[in-house]
Design brief:
Blueprint (H helix, E strand, L loop, with lengths): L3 E3 L11 E2 L7 E4 L5 E4 L5 E8 L3 E4 L10 E4 L2 E2 L2 E9 L7 E9 L2 E9 L11 E6 L2 H11 L6 E5 L14 E5 L9 H21 L5 E6 L5 H6 L9 E6 L3 H11 L5 H13 L24 H4 L5 E5 L10 H9 L2 E3 L2 H7 L2 H10 L4 H8 L5 E6 L6 H18 L3 E6 L10 H4 L3 E3 L6 H7 L6 E4 L13 E4 L11 H4 L7 E2 L2
Parallel strand pairs: 1-14, 4-11, 12-13, 12-15, 13-14, 15-16, 16-17, 17-18, 19-20, 19-22, 20-21, 22-23, 23-24
Antiparallel strand pairs: 2-3, 3-5, 5-9, 6-8, 6-10, 7-9, 10-11
């Protein structure tokens, strides 16, 4: 049984308060309840705050215990509030840490001081956290999870995407309690609390650990709230924001597509991000903004900050509205990675594990494609609200059969909500009907080499398919397509436009 966390379970949060006497109203509070101070490799100073009901002092590590890279002043203090200045030597090497001991009223309280290493990259994390809202980010996350064996904590919003019992042993899985519905808002926030608690536990056990976060770009703020907001040095947190498909491109156009407002919007969102306390040195500002699940207006600016990047299908589809945004696009760290490239890069046993997690029968569909010597052609259907729409789809399919049926084996993939195509195999001899509910993205990515031609109604699927595989679209022209497909297909001479 995999270690599956059901999000409806309530959990107690860490208090960070230490009793210093039998009087429970008297507490020693260090760094406002935190048990550590995490600084980046560039830091040369920091501050530790102490509130105590009596005199206190600090015991440094024994000689050779790792205290030769910092100094503290003072090393003791009176009852009440005090501040300790931390001075650090330059750190050009590995991450380092030291365990301090505060003594108050005859009791001892450990406190961890750490400084991160220089120039750790996105492949450096010791622990990975995943927060996938939507199908595409969940698939990206699942593929990355199988590319390593580091301890991992994996949330996905839609429980139908993967079987939580089939994840690798090094992953702890969070998903909805109801396997037939998406996670509720309450479950999502409870997941966040559990993730934050685990991050603090790891930090206490491994004070120089590097964390990797793969998160749907719309929820990009988790990189701050889960880590930096809890005192983790931002240099130890490598955040990859995952595109959810068309939403990434449309949001960018919404915020920055108008040259009259693009620069002002960029500056406003940058100011919101920089108002957060990124280098607090253990001090939390009173004006710190509250947590918010969705911060889609921050995605672009965050990708210019250290240790953040945006992973998407095609960065060339991010449009510039003028010279200012052209400059900002050049500053953004964007990595164009198609999911089928991640799948192809996995070892064969990891690919099979991915298929099992996603309940996808690769061998079954491979056999279908290999059943004849003809090429394989895929037609994508759509959903319908009128009989006219259903009749139009059938007319398109008839045209494809007439035009391509002698050269290709034709496979029709209905929309999950479409029941009108259930008799297509009888109506169109030679056509094979694919399951409407199967994970179609995985079908396409895994069998891409077997697919000779694909087309149909405009779909986000086409963002993650090589352009030379697309042979026809049910639309008037590229300009009539929704963004960003209009950009993707504006210079696609091999596409036949069907109306």
């Amino acid at each position: 049984m995999k270690r599956l966390f059901r999000l409806f379970l309530a959990s107690a949060l860490l208090t960070g308060a230490w009793a210093c006497s039998d009087d429970k109203t008297s507490e020693v509070r260090i760094n406002d309840g935190a048990e550590f101070l995490s600084l980046d490799y560039l830091a040369r100073s920091g501050k530790i705050t102490v509130t105590a009901p009596g005199p206190w002092e600090i015991t440094l590590p024994e000689e050779g215990g790792g205290d030769d890279w910092f100094t503290l002043s003072p090393l003791s203090g009176p009852e009440g509030y005090s501040e300790i200045e931390v001075t650090l030597e330059a750190n050009g090497g590995a991450a380092r840490s030291a365990l301090l001991t505060f003594v108050c009223g005859g009791k001892t309280y450990p406190f961890q001081l750490s400084q991160s290493a220089r120039d750790t990259g996105f492949d450096a994390p010791d622990y990975y956290f995943y927060a996938a809202f939507g199908t595409m980010p969940a698939l990206y996350s699942g593929l990355h999870l199988l590319s390593h064996d580091k301890p991992s904590y994996f949330f996905y919003e839609r429980p139908q995407t993967f079987d939580p019992e089939l994840f690798p042993d090094y992953a702890k899985v969070f998903t909805a309690a109801n396997p037939n519905a998406g996670a509720t808002t309450e479950e999502i926030y409870e997941m966040g609390r559990q993730m934050k608690r685990r991050i603090l536990e790891i930090n206490a056990e491994d004070p120089t650990a590097v964390f990797g976060l793969y998160v749907t770009d719309l929820a990009c703020r988790a990189g701050y709230d889960w880590f930096v907001g809890q005192g983790i040095d931002s240099a130890r947190v490598k955040v990859t924001m995952l595109s959810d498909g068309t939403g990434t491109y449309n949001n960018f156009h919404t915020f920055f597509g108008d040259p009259a407002t693009a620069e002002q919007n960029w500056n406003d969102y940058a100011a919101q991000v920089e108002a957060l306390d990124w280098n607090h040195g253990g001090r939390y500002p009173e004006t710190r903004a509250p947590e918010d699940l969705v911060s889609d207006e921050w995605i672009a600016y965050l990708s210019t900050r250290p240790n953040y990047r945006l992973m998407l299908q095609n960065s060339s589809l991010m449009e510039s509205s003028g010279p200012f945004m052209t400059q900002k696009l050049a500053e953004m760290k964007m990595e164009s990675v198609q999911p089928y490239e991640l799948l192809t890069a996995l070892p064969e046993d990891a690919k099979q594990e991915f298929y099992r997690m996603a309940n996808f029968s690769y061998d079954h569909f491979k056999d279908l494609f290999d059943a004849s010597s003809k090429g394989n052609l895929i037609v994508l259907g759509t959903s319908h609200t009128t009989d006219e729409s259903r009749q139009q789809q059938a007319a398109y399919v008839q045209r494809i059969m007439d035009q391509y049926g002698s050269e290709y084996d034709v496979f029709f993939k209905p929309h999950p909500a479409d029941n009108s195509s259930s008799d297509y195999e009888e109506r169109f001899p030679g056509l094979t009907l694919l399951p409407g509910q199967m994970p179609f993205e995985i079908f396409v990515w895994s069998l891409l080499d077997e697919i000779d031609l694909i087309g149909g109604y405009p779909s986000t699927t086409f963002i993650s398919v090589p352009l030379d595989k697309v042979g026809f679209l049910f639309a008037a022209d590229a300009a009539s397509l929704p963004r960003p497909l209009n950009l993707l297909f504006r210079d696609a001479p091999n596409v036949e436009w069907m109306q």
